Amino acid sequence: MEPPHQTPYEDPNEAPYTAPPPDPPAPARRRPWVVGVSGASGTPYAAAVLRALLRAGEAVDLVVSRAARLTVLDETGGPFRDAHWREDLRRWLAAGADGRPDAFSTDIDLSDVRHWAAGDLAGGPSSGSYAAKGMIVVPASTAAVAGIALGLSKDLLQRAASVTLKEGRPLVVVVRETPLPGPTLRQMVALDEAGATVLPAAPAFYAGATGIQDLVDFVAGRALDSAGVPHKLYRRWEGELGRAR
Description:
The protein is an alpha/beta fold. The protein has helices at residues 43-55, 66-76, 85-94, 142-150, 156-166, 182-194, 212-227; strands spanning 33-37, 60-64, 113-117, 134-140, 171-175, 197-198.
């Protein structure tokens, strides 16, 4: 009887080869939207953008400039402090544009929000290797516009915006100033040429606004449109005159 066929060097006593199990899938990498809040008037715009991002299930990295903390205090009646930022942010997001402190629920999930101090130039968003989807500067003061356009990087907000541009990520700059002087207009053109979306905080009335919050939400919604984030902040134009009335 002929012996069973064997391939060369095959050991008949060795167990058959079994491939090792595949590596487990890597956990999803967190890719936040960076939201920079500068010192211009318009903290309700920032609050509306933040609420909508969180409702859309987006992770958020928040940078509030030193000047913006004074504006938050002036426009909301409460502080924004590094050591108590979650408590202060929850109160800020609950406030309405009309000044009511309880216009929105305080039961909002902040587990996927990170706060970076504006003076922390080594913070995550300061590097292009830090994974981020893009950045929204809301509101953007003329100083922030100039700093970003000129690449000054005087704080983490400006540095993060410069990084967003150099990495080719979406950058939406919600300018809140009027009138606009020549230098600021030229800096806005420079931002546009660098790839940013320059979005003046100019509310529209065709969506059927009945209060100040509707006007704020329109601007916030347009900023999110530019960033490609879905939302339901305002009624969209559908080509029918008077539909909003």
